[in-house]
Inverse folding.
């Protein structure tokens, strides 16, 4: 996916600082943070979204990344929210699978949040 910004970031093309990296995923700060901690967990391979045949090992790496980011930032103690916006109604704007990890302040009691 030549024109995909998250493919480029995940490949290391921009020298982005990664909070976590393994063979399947990277985690880096959102450009426009919506909370004190706002990290995106992004597979290195391109999947459009969570219903694009994502392999189990990639999903496992995403979960590991969440755990690592939570421990590193301290939100493992205070709580956080994971969001995967999917498609038009989900408000997805970057069509490369990513999970938002938001925390560091109370996010309220809403069932959903648009990051
Ligand atoms: P979504 O609306 O769920 O598709 O979220 C896309 C997210 O990607 C938004 O929160 C943007 O702020 C973030 N974003 C877009 N471009 C970049 C970038 N170059 N680096 C980091 N985050 C980005
Ligand atoms: Zn991509």
């Amino acid at each position: 996916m030549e024109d995909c910004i998250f493919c480029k970031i995940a490949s290391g093309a921009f020298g982005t600082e990664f909070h976590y990296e393994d063979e399947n995923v990277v985690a880096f700060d959102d450009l426009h943070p919506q909370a004190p901690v706002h990290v995106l967990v992004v597979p290195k391979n391109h999947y459009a979204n969570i219903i694009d045949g994502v392999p189990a090992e990639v999903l496992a790496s995403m979960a590991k990344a969440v755990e690592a980011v939570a421990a590193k930032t301290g939100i493992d103690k205070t709580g956080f929210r994971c969001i995967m916006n999917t498609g038009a109604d989900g408000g997805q704007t970057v069509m490369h699978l990513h999970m938002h990890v938001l925390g560091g302040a109370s996010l309220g009691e809403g069932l959903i949040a648009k990051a």
In short: The helical segments are 5-10, 56-73, 75-78, 87-90.
